[in-house]
Design a protein that fits this description.
Elements lengths: L12 E5 L10 H14 L3 E6 L19 E5 L2 E5 L10 H20 L8 E6 L5 H11 L2 E6 L3 H8 L5 H15 L4 E4 L2 H9 L7 E3 L16 H6 L7 E6 L8 H14 L3 E6 L5 H7 L6 E4 L7 H7 L2 E4 L14 H6 L3 E5 L5 H6 L3 E4 L4 H12 L2 H18 L2 H13 L2
Length: 416
């Protein structure tokens, strides 16, 4: 086979170990998949050890099997699918067992890559349970280690008080810092999360800011959304509030429904669209029964997604109290790139709150009255929506463009 063209700085052999990967369209799997494909397209040798696709439905997509290891090549990336257990109803305890099962499956997957001789092993968190496995493999191979944190899952679970295991999760967060200090490089997606690494005693020279990016050419305000709005049965005078993403525990959709009962009753031109899948979908649909002008749609394909984003007049980004301090929702980048205003529930001093204040409205988590007021105010003020949307688009262009972020990341990997 012909040798690939080497990029400036030289090609790098990389093994990425992460639970979620393409073809998952939302969450961590989307970004890990895009990272791997981008690096491979530029001449790097990229191998991925991951689970079969199952998120956000919590059901393994055919033709994959949960307990069967398989190997495939996707867009120039060598992918090993590791076995794991996927619960149909993911309670807190079942999630822990699920993550532990992947850690065991990852061990067998990495054994299949023992001849690769990687220069870097990159562990993606979540899940933290698999990070020790990636660390061990790297030590055996003599590779440098990098852990990229999309979500401080132990801290987030504690903040959300996820059942009886919350206390054990808080204890585990102390061990989190010890484990992260074992890696050569540690990256996170926001400045606020980077500050937590400082609290863990990780020096600046080993920390790296790697924000989630957006393809600003794929998601643009000019994308024609007339077909989507026609599908939704809307006129040019209707105002659409869109929630697009996973239907899981961190998203406070109960609060959205409570606020929407007030807002939809007060403004007959206001509509609510929920576009997504997840383990709580049926429960949430029952909870929202009786809401006027509410429509439900499944997650959209990569090709159709930009039109759905631009079909919205207002994007909704609800987060439960405690979650916004631990994570930066990946969906925010697409919202900003679409040039539409955002309403988020977050505390002002969090990274999420500070970002959304530049392109939308922030209301306190758990405050349905404030959220309803924000919905009605933005729905009635088209010039303000347009101005906030333009500010979000400019911020996305300046800080979240995919090529700029990943080119900088590749340079870090190629450094001696």
């Amino acid at each position: 086979m012909a040798e690939q063209v080497r990029e400036p700085g030289g090609a790098t052999r990389v093994v990425i170990a992460g639970l979620n990967y393409a073809p998952e369209r939302v969450g961590v799997g989307k970004y890990t998949g895009e990272m791997a494909v981008w690096l491979a397209a530029r001449g790097n040798q990229v191998h991925v050890a991951c689970a079969p696709p199952y998120y956000p439905d919590w059901k393994v997509q055919p033709p994959y099997r949960a307990w069967r290891r398989c190997r495939e090549t996707l867009a120039g990336v060598d992918v090993i699918r590791c076995p794991l257990w996927v619960p149909q109803s993911p309670t807190a305890l079942r999630r822990v067992i699920h993550l532990l099962s992947f850690a065991l499956g990852l061990l067998s997957g990495l054994l299949g890559l023992r001849r690769v001789r990687p220069q870097w092993v990159i562990a993606i968190v979540p899940t933290l349970f698999s990070a020790p496995v990636a660390l061990l493999a790297a030590r055996l191979w003599g590779a440098r280690t990098w852990v990229h944190i999309q979500d401080f899952e132990l801290g987030a679970a504690s903040g959300l008080q996820m059942g009886m295991l919350a206390r054990f999760m808080r204890i585990g967060s102390f061990l989190e810092g010890w484990l992260l200090r074992r890696f050569d490089r540690v990256s996170t997606i926001s400045l606020e999360m980077d500050e937590r690494l400082e609290d863990y005693g990780i020096p600046p020279g080993r920390r790296y800011l790697l924000p989630n990016w957006v393809d600003v050419e794929h998601v643009r305000p000019e994308v024609d959304a007339r077909g989507v709005r026609t599908q939704l049965g809307l006129t040019v005078d209707d105002v659409v509030m869109l929630y697009s993403g996973s239907l899981s525990v961190k998203q406070d959709l109960e609060l959205v429904f409570e606020a929407a009962r007030v807002a939809l009753s007060a403004n007959p031109r206001l509509h609510l669209v929920i576009c997504g899948d997840g383990p709580r979908k049926e429960q949430l649909q029952q909870l929202a029964r009786g809401l006027p002008r509410l429509q439900w749609y499944p997650s959209q394909s990569f090709e159709d997604f930009p039109a759905w984003l631009t079909a919205a007049d207002i994007h909704l980004l609800p987060q439960k109290i405690g979650a916004a301090a631990q994570v930066m929702p990946s969906k925010l980048g697409g919202m900003m790139a679409s040039g539409r205003a955002v309403i988020a529930t977050a505390m002002p001093q969090t990274a999420l709150g500070e970002t959304v204040e530049q392109c939308g409205v922030v209301t306190p988590p758990g405050d349905a009255e404030a959220l309803a007021a924000a919905m009605l105010a933005l729905a009635a003020d088209a010039p303000k929506r347009q101005a906030l949307g333009l500010q979000g688009r400019q911020l996305a262009l300046q800080t979240l463009a995919q090529d700029a972020i990943l080119e900088r990341f590749q340079r870090e990997l190629s450094r001696p």
